[in-house]
Amino acid sequence: MFAYVEASALSTWIREADTVFAFQGILVAHALGMGFLAGGNAAIDLRILGVARGIPLPSLERWFPVLWISFVLSAVSGVLLLIAYPTKALTNPLFHVKIVCIALAVWLMQVIRKVVLRGSGSPKGVRLAAVSLLLWIAIIGAGRLLAYTYTRLFAESPPVGF
């Protein structure tokens, strides 16, 4: 299955095209999307944790369209990066950690919006914000380490170190 995807025209183009719109451009789009998504969530989480108390919590809800656009950009670019190197990503346990953390963080983003920003400022908001912040740190860490911790680059390649 991995070899089939790796041999596809799209996967080959992403990896090998001599244009900024291929791998490099997709990587930049992914970094920008993740920067806005993780950064926006971190700003909201830090406000809930007590930073910048002069900013009313409900006013932070206006950032959610930016967060969702950033999520879509990150998801689309992430899928394209996955198509470029499916074996490299899908055989790496850190990739699975990243995906689980993303799912939890995006779910928690909605819980925080409903319970804290639209709600009455529930006392559990501080715990939610702390967990959210830790998840975004884990996502960024796992994502960065993916480039350096793989054991197989392609389906047909031997494991690294052999």
Q: From the alpha-carbon coordinates, what is the Rg to the nearest angstrom? A: 18 Å
The number of helical runs is 7
Q: What is the structural class?
A: mainly alpha
Strand content: under 5%
Overall morphology: elongated
Reported for the largest beta sheet, the result is:
none
The share of residues in helices is: 55-70%
Mean pLDDT value: 94
Description:
By secondary structure, the protein is mostly helical. It has helices at 2-6, 9-16, 23-48, 64-84, 86-90, 93-117, 125-146. Helix 6 (93-117) packs antiparallel against helix 7 (125-146). It starts with a helix and ends in a 16-residue tail after the last helix.
Sum this structure up briefly.
This protein is mainly alpha-helical and 162 residues long.
List keywords for this structure.
162 residues, mainly alpha, elongated
Question: Which helices and strands, and how do they pair?
Answer:
Blueprint: H1 2-6, H2 9-16, H3 23-48, H4 64-84, H5 86-90, H6 93-117, H7 125-146
Helix pairs in contact: 2-4, 3-4, 3-7, 6-7
